[in-house]
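Sanity check

After download, print the first record. It should look like this:
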Amino acid sequence: MLARLALSVTTVTTVAATGCAWRYRQRTLTDPLTGLANRAALETEFRRRRRSGPVAVAIGDMNGFKAFNDTYGHRFGDQVLIEVARVLARETNRGELPVRLHGDEFAVLLPGVTDQGTAEHRVRQLQSAIARITTIDGQPVEVSMALGVMTMPAESADLSRLLGSADDRMYGDKHAARSSIEIAIPQSQ
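Expected structure tokens:
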């Protein structure tokens, strides 16, 4: 009888400890605001995925995000980030990993992408999906994200270099978006 009781207590304790450990691990790999994976999850998944083939990483940040916070407040800005995260989670394909790095900066791990053209096409699809966000909490909005992407073969793939190169490309995309906006300049009389 005592042996059964001890076994039951041990089993319950083990199950509870395993559940707590799993919840703790999930918390350490998840962004608390958006529910997306975080940088630690990106690093873990990158190491796992690069063993099986080429990888690409897209990195991006919101265009004009500060205006949401300044105009409508930080809670509204948080809602923008949450909605962008929902779109990224919904639009990523099986095996792709959407990540919130920090602030208004996101990344997407694109495993198995072998060439830069395919990676850039995939990034444009994600940008289009984000641009389709037109209202948040009943408020009309224009949401866009500058994204850059870089691919590397598995044998030379390094996350830090991929993120750095993708970041450089993202700033090129951001600069191109800014220069394509027409600015009305009053003419002198």
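If your output differs, re-run the checksum step. Summary of this record's structure: The longest helix spans residues 2-28.
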